[in-house]
Specification:
The complex is a heterotetramer. By secondary structure, chain A is mainly α. Chain A is 79% helix and 0% strand. Chain A has a domain of 36 residues. Chain A has ten helices and no strands. Chain B is of the alpha+beta class. Chain B has a single domain, classed as Cytochrome-c3 Hydrogenase, chain B (Orthogonal Bundle), CATH 1.10.645.10. In chain B, 46% of the residues lie in helices and 13% in strands. In chain B, strands 1-2-3 form a three-stranded antiparallel beta sheet. In chain B, strand 7 and strand 8 form a beta hairpin. In chain D, 68% of the residues lie in helices and 2% in strands. Chain D is built from 13 helices and three strands, in the order αααααααββααααααβ. Chain D has a two-stranded antiparallel sheet with strand order 1-2. In chain D, helix 2 packs across helix 10, helix 6 runs antiparallel to helix 8 and helix 6 runs parallel beside helix 12. Chain D starts with a helix and ends with a strand. Classes of the chains: A mainly alpha, B alpha+beta, C alpha+beta, D mainly alpha. Chains in contact: A-D, B-C, B-D, C-D.
């Protein structure tokens, strides 16, 4: 008993919080895998949401509170809903009836597997390259904390240094919104 | 051909496409006023097709009458429109009196007018509550309405012995005279009624949400209303001046001074307001009737109620019920039992234009329109 | 006056608030709180209030004082056919003027009181009891003669006005009957007396062969 | 009254001391030398647990009380008695034990899952619903120094977690395999997304003036009096009043309460996304809705009603947390009051209301607040900000909403 307690308490528990990130990371991977592999589209979307939530938790665990909350707010609150709406509003029969150029089932399967693998490799490569060749990667890793990345600093950056891109994005999004509304309206009249 | 309600649905070919949704509202649904069903096809929340299905509460009233005596049919009329049984009694009595040519004593006519208008008051009051319930108000208006209705039902119980199933009218009069003190109590009660209506109006008619929910919803033109055979407040809301109390002038109504309100738009709000305006007119009628009621017998002594045998013939008697024209078509072969009775229920006939009013509106409007027609399923299905 | 957007909603809220506060100051159950707290508070039923029929008997003994004569008019008139009557027979199988079985199925009865109106013997009347629920669907909802028979005093207690009218009617009928009987008896007596007088006269006209003729 | 004021914090400290003392006593008994980081970690853990237990207990009790008082108040407004029977043996206690009875009933009811339902999602939906609802209240400052978790962007946290509710509602509606449920879910999502905008915008207005997203900082920004008599609460400024109303309406919509109870609109959609739920799952939905309602009302108190602050200094003898819960109770009462009065919106009217009135008004409030802030909070600022929110309100109110309804004077003809 005595020994056990001694041994347990002498384990490097103070390192534990750094390993805790594995839990959300695991959920994120599970969610991502589910989003790709499940058959039911709604289940896929829900798995994707799980992945988003885990990502948000990771951000928060890394001390990037603001980004984490925005991740939750935007992705869980808005993007997921968008995906779900899109799935629900798409009539179920249309995908099956679409004209597949690759008549042979086997061929299409093989082609899509190869294409998918290539895209995945490409994305992974880009990510790795950007991580390894970015100047931040060589700098000493300083954990982002609430003190170094407060909401105020982000706001300051957004509205002072990157005002033009921000406004440009806003205009683009507005244009897209108006376009979407117009498209929807046209469809209703026809 | 066998009718199977549970498989009954629309033809797939007459739909607007794959993006519509068929919903069966009812027969067990919170706001269909009983066991009523509407097969609804919706595009989003907009109604593109609506099919009323009724008959779930069919109780054979017309057929039952053929195996009952003339008097024995009277208590069954209570159960047609169970919100206002007295006017049902009255319509049946009027029809039988027309068939047999029976005179009604004057006091009985006044009593009939008094209880009939009290019935109209409580029906219209309950209507206000019901339609608010259909709109999703959490029962305040309904509870106030039932509070007042309760007091009228107490008067009925005092007079007839029962709150709802009164069985009060008889051929050639009414079953019993007013108890001592009834008239004073009723008069005092009716005097409190305008204040209650004012309170209801303060609660309801200014409310922006209610206005938005009722105005411009379920518009029905006067022409369509006439063609559909509609009657009662629904018809008058479409601007048609037609009230059997004025047209037929039955009972002592010609002696009473009252007005018939009419709407101008024919939407749900007009139907709603018309109930309030009619209730106010009813109060006027009641005041006059209280002042004019004479002493005298309440039942024509020449008429034998038990074993009543009218002469051979047919008659159609009708009155202006709270919901519209309530008529009884009687055929007598001179026996103790009617050969055939046909009931013209206002609820059923007002319901016939439901789809027309609902097309293009939202799902929530269907409930309001249904509520604004003011149906009672007991009368619709009979 | 106040008519900005949203004022209608505020007015409505004033009404609900007034009703809420008013309900706490409404002691007499007169205006706002009309709910009766049922098991503790019982409604005071008006005299005419009716639920199900019962049979009236006079005096103390239900069987002896029973007014019902098993004429079966109510059974015939009852719209939902909820009355069942069987006439009683004596030891010799002769029909008696009283029911052996008188059942009312209150699960069928609709309380229309047409039986009351059609009864020529003032025998069946409407009760105002309302606690008739039971756990037995079939047995206890059919009420038998024993349960149906209630005294005239009970009737007077639930509906004094109508009971008094009925009593007066019965009394009047009894007096009329008694008077009629008296008249009939007097008529008989008078006839007999006349006959006797005639006989006496005849006897008087004839020679008195039997002088000691007792008077009738 | 310092004792009452400090009662919650003192209790927490007492429990922590107790734990520390007991641990130390045990260690010395057993002769174990603990590493230096163990005790602080343990105490942190215990203090977190205390906060969780206290929060859940407080909100559960509030939920129970609310469920009975809501029914009683609603009943009184409708001239009924409301629940007044359930008590403790012979004592009825005005029906205060009703929630206990309800809970037992809900627990013992059969949990029905429709045959065609997606069982996993159907099971997960109540959990997804209740988890954010229970986490939401942690950022609220309940009293002076009584913030369970002090977050610098707490307001954002609140809205971020609030997004989870939409997901749960969708899951519930979709998985039930019922047309009413799906329609209810779609309505709920449309409604929540639409009303989240004005809700967030009116919170942004406050963040703009207070210059912080931390709830505690916002409460502290509302201390003191302006003009010498008016508490510095944001609701007592023109822009704040408008933003508060918008936030309140948005809160009604977010917590699916009348007149925005379209998702469960029982006269149309039987019970919306809850149609196929029964037993304790239904109770959990119900609970999550109420706790969410308290949380959002708590945020309203924090943002606009001065949080735990007393309106005037001489009222400071009442503990700060009492002020907070008092204001919360008042808001909950008004929600019941609104529910007793109003009919329900129609779906298109609800959307119109959000996008055509509330969103422009929240922008107007933002501009108004900025004007008020930069003109130095004086009388000029007041006048300008009243103008900036008043004019759009009247224009929008008269021309977009009520003109159609009230301006055409309905005429009713009477024939003799």
């Amino acid at each position: 008993m005595h020994d056990l307690i001694q041994r347990l308490t002498s384990l490097p528990w103070d390192q534990a919080p750094q390993w805790l990130f594995l839990i959300p990371a695991l959920f994120m991977l599970l969610g991502a895998a589910g989003a790709v592999m499940l058959r039911n589209l709604i289940h896929c979307a829900l798995c994707l949401t799980l992945s988003f939530i885990a990502l948000g938790v990771l951000f928060i665990a890394l001390g990037a509170e603001f980004v984490g909350f925005v991740q939750l707010l935007v992705y869980v609150g808005a993007v997921t809903m968008l995906i779900l709406f899109a799935i629900l509003l798409t009539p179920a029969g249309e995908v099956a009836a679409s004209n597949n150029p690759f008549r042979s089932f086997q061929l299409s399967r093989a082609l899509s597997a190869v294409g998918g693998a290539m895209i995945a490799l490409l994305v992974l490569g880009t990510l790795l390259a950007s991580i390894f060749f970015s100047p931040h990667a060589r700098a000493a890793v300083t954990p982002v904390t609430a003190a170094t990345a407060p909401a105020a600093a982000i706001g300051e950056n957004l509205l002072n240094h990157t005002l033009l891109p921000l406004q440009g994005t806003a205009v683009l999004l507005t244009a897209a919104l108006i376009g979407a509304a117009l498209l929807a309206k046209e469809e209703k009249q026809s | 051909m066998s009718f199977q309600p549970h498989t009954f649905s629309f033809n797939e070919s007459d739909g607007a496409g794959a993006s519509t949704l068929d919903v069966s509202l009812g027969p067990q649904h919170p706001s269909t006023h009983g066991v009523f069903r509407m097969n609804v096809r919706m595009d989003g929340e907009t109604i593109v097709k609506l099919q009323p299905v009724f008959g779930y509460l069919h109780r054979n009233h017309e057929k039952l009458a053929e195996s009952h005596s003339w008097l024995g049919t009277m208590p069954y009329t209570d159960r047609l429109d169970y919100i206002c049984p007295i006017t049902n009694n009255w319509a049946y009595a009027v029809a039988v009196e027309k068939l047999a040519g029976i005179e009604v004593p004057e006091r009985a006519e006044y009593i009939r007018v008094i209880v009939g208008e009290l019935t109209r008051l409580q029906n219209h009051t309950a209507f206000l509550g019901f339609i608010l319930g259909d709109m999703g108000a959490w029962g305040s208006a309904l509870m106030y309405a039932f509070r007042e209705r309760e007091k009228i039902l107490d008067l009925f119980e005092w007079l007839t012995g029962a709150r709802m199933m009164v069985n009060y009218m008889r051929f050639g009069g009414v079953r019993c005279d007013l108890p001592v003190g009834w008239l004073e109590k009723a008069r005092a009660y009716v005097e409190t009624y305008p204040a209650f209506l004012d309170e209801m109006e303060q609660l309801l008619t200014g409310n922006e949400i209610l206005l938005a929910r009722l105005q411009g919803v379920g518009v029905l033109s006067g022409e369509r209303a006439i063609n559909g055979g509609l009657s009662g407040p629904v018809l008058r809301a479409s601007g048609i001046d037609y009230d059997i109390r004025k047209v037929d002038g039955y009972g002592v109504y010609p002696r009473l001074n009252f007005r018939i309100p009419r709407g101008t738009k024919g939407d749900c709000f007009d139907r709603f307001m018309l109930r309030i305006l009619e209730a106010r007119e009813s109060i006027k009628i009641l005041r006059q009737a209280f002042a004019q009621i004479p002493e005298g017998p309440t039942l024509n002594p020449a008429v034998k109620q038990r074993g009543f045998k009218p002469p051979v013939g047919e008659a159609y008697g009708r009155i202006e019920g709270p919901k519209g024209e309530l008529g009884f078509h009687l055929i007598s072969e001179g026996g103790e039992k009617p050969y055939r009775i046909h009931i013209r229920p206002p609820s059923l006939i007002n319901l016939t234009l439901l789809e027309e009013m609902c097309l293009g509106t939202k799902l929530a409007d269907v409930m309001v329109i249904l509520g604004s027609i003011d149906i009672v399923l007991g009368e619709v299905d009979r | 006056m106040m008519n900005f957007p949203g004022s209608g909603i505020l007015k409505g809220m004033v009404v609900t608030a007034r009703n809420m506060i008013g309900s706490y100051f409404d002691r007499a159950h007169a205006k706002r709180l009309i709910t009766e707290q049922y098991p503790e508070e019982r409604p005071t039923l008006p005299e005419a209030s009716r639920s199900f029929p019962f049979l009236v008997f006079d005096g103390q003994d239900p069987e002896a004082g029973m007014r019902c004569v098993a004429c079966k008019i109510c059974e015939k008139e009852c719209p939902p056919q909820c009355i069942f009557i069987e006439q009683d027979r004596d030891a010799n199988g002769k029909l008696l003027r009283r029911p052996k079985i008188f059942d009312i199925d209150i699960s069928v009865c609709m309380g229309c009181q047409i039986c009351v109106e059609s009864c020529p013997f003032e025998s069946i009347r409407m009760d105002n009891i309302y606690e008739m629920s039971s756990c037995d669907r079939f047995g206890s909802l059919v009420i038998h003669k024993g349960q149906l028979l209630k005294s005239n005093e009970y009737y007077r207690s639930i509906n004094p006005t109508e009971a008094a009218e009925t009593d007066a009617r019965i009394e009047a009928a009894r007096i009329k009957k008694a008077a009629a009987a008296k008249v009939a008896a007097e008529k008989v007596a008078a006839a007999r007396a006349a006959a006797a007088a005639k006989a006496a006269a005849e006897q008087a006209a004839q020679p008195p062969s039997e002088p000691e003729q007792p008077a009738p | 009254m310092n004792f009452l004021e400090n009662l919650p914090l003192a209790t927490k400290k007492f429990i922590l001391d107790l734990v520390e003392w007991v641990c130390g006593w045990f260690c010395s008994k057993l002769g174990i030398q603990l590493p230096g980081w163990v005790m602080p970690a343990l105490l942190t853990l215990v203090s977190i647990l205390i906060v969780i237990v206290a929060l859940i207990a407080v909100f559960m009790v509030m939920f129970a009380l609310m469920s009975v008082f809501e029914r009683k108040i609603l009943a009184r407004m409708q001239n009924r008695y409301g629940p007044n029977r359930v008590g403790f043996f012979r004592w009825r206690l005005c029906g205060l034990f009703q929630p206990v009875a309800d809970g037992i009933k809900m627990l013992t009811k059969e949990d029905i899952v429709p045959r065609g339902a997606d069982k996993i999602v159907h099971f997960l939906a109540p959990i997804v619903m209740v988890a954010p609802a229970l986490i939401l209240p942690v950022i609220l400052p309940y009293g002076r120094g009584m913030v369970p978790i002090e977050l610098s962007s707490g307001i954002l946290f609140f809205f971020a977690l609030g997004a989870g509710t939409e997901l749960a509602v969708f899951m519930a509606g979709w998985s039930s395999n019922n047309k009413y449920s799906v329609m209810g879910a779609m309505r709920a999502i449309a409604q929540m997304i639409s009303y989240e905008l004005p809700l967030v915008m009116s919170a942004v207005v406050v963040a703009l003036v207070a210059g912080t997203l931390s709830p505690n900082g916002i409460v502290e920004a509302q201390g003191g009096l302006s003009f010498g008599f008016l508490p510095n609460w944001f609701v007592f400024t023109p822009w704040g009043f408008v933003a508060c109303l918008l936030f309140y309406i948005g809160a009604l919509a977010e917590s699916n309460r009348s007149p925005f109870d379209l998702p469960e609109g029982e006269s149309e959609l039987v019970a919306g996304h809850l149609t196929e739920y029964s037993g304790f799952k239904y109770a959990i939905f119900f609970m999550a809705e109420y706790v969410g309602m308290f949380a959002i009302n708590g945020l309203l108190v924090t943002l606009f009603l001065g949080g735990y602050q007393a309106p005037f200094a001489f009222l400071d003898f009442i503990p700060s947390w009492c002020w907070f819960f008092g204001k919360l109770a008042f808001l909950a009462f008004t929600m019941v009051w609104v529910r007793a009065t109003m009919p329900r919106f129609r779906i298109d009217q609800m959307m119109q209301f959000a996008w055509k009135l509330m969103l422009p008004m929240s922008f107007a409030a933002l501009i108004s607040a900025a004007t008020w802030y930069y003109t130095g909070r004086g009388l000029l600022g007041w006048a300008l900000s009243i103008l900036i929110v008043g004019v759009p309100y009247l224009i929008l109110g008269y021309f977009c909403f009520t003109r159609r309804h009230t301006a055409d004077n309905r005429r009713y003809l009477f024939s003799e």
